[in-house]
Design brief:
Oligomer: single chain
Number of strands: 0
Length: 183
């Protein structure tokens, strides 16, 4: 078989990385728990709060509407930035893990979008004052879309669950040695 190119040989000799495979399996289990009850608060929801609140502060210089939307933008920016970083470094497995975080963020956001009319969810604000507003009530009201909060929330939920599933599948795919997949 001396006619085979060395790249062809690499493809045939891929070895499964069991740590990565185990982590992808852990993401699958975590994703199923999220999908089973999207209203339950979990570990990553608390992590999401930091870039969410930072987004409000960062975007406060661009007016009230952008400041309120900035919480969600900050929450989504964090996994997108990390994902882009790993993607540009050709670290595909790490990119798939961060993609899961993006999907989880969308599921987290769904709770508040679907609560825009009822405003029953507890709110958090920097400093813990009584000046908290419901981000998605404000956003959808300003866009004249408040009556569609359930539909918009369901679209975001479906997108988040799809992205989480895609990330798990990519995680399993990239849990082999990546030398042949970096081009």
């Amino acid at each position: 078989m001396s006619f085979m190119h060395s790249a062809d040989t690499e493809i045939m000799t891929n070895k499964r990385n069991y740590v990565k495979t185990g982590f992808a399996l852990l993401l699958l289990v975590y994703g199923l728990a999220i999908a089973r009850d999207v209203d339950d608060y979990r570990f990553l929801d608390r992590v999401d709060l930091v870039p969410h609140e930072a987004g409000h502060l960062l975007f406060s210089y661009f007016g009230e509407f952008i400041m309120v939307l900035g919480g969600t933008m900050g929450q989504l920016f964090a996994p997108i930035a990390f994902g882009l970083y790993f993607y540009l470094r050709n670290e595909r497995f790490s990119t798939s893990v961060v993609l899961f975080w993006l999907g989880q963020n969308l599921v987290n956001i769904t709770r508040y979008v679907k609560d825009a009319q009822a405003m029953a969810q507890p709110l958090v604000s920097v400093g813990g004052g009584d000046d908290s507003i419901h981000d998605w009530n404000y956003i959808l009201l300003k866009l004249n879309l408040l009556r569609h909060d359930q539909v918009i929330g369901n679209v975001i939920l479906g997108s988040g669950l799809f992205i989480m599933l895609l990330s798990v599948l990519l995680g399993f795919y990239y849990s082999t040695d990546e030398t042949d997949r970096m081009s």
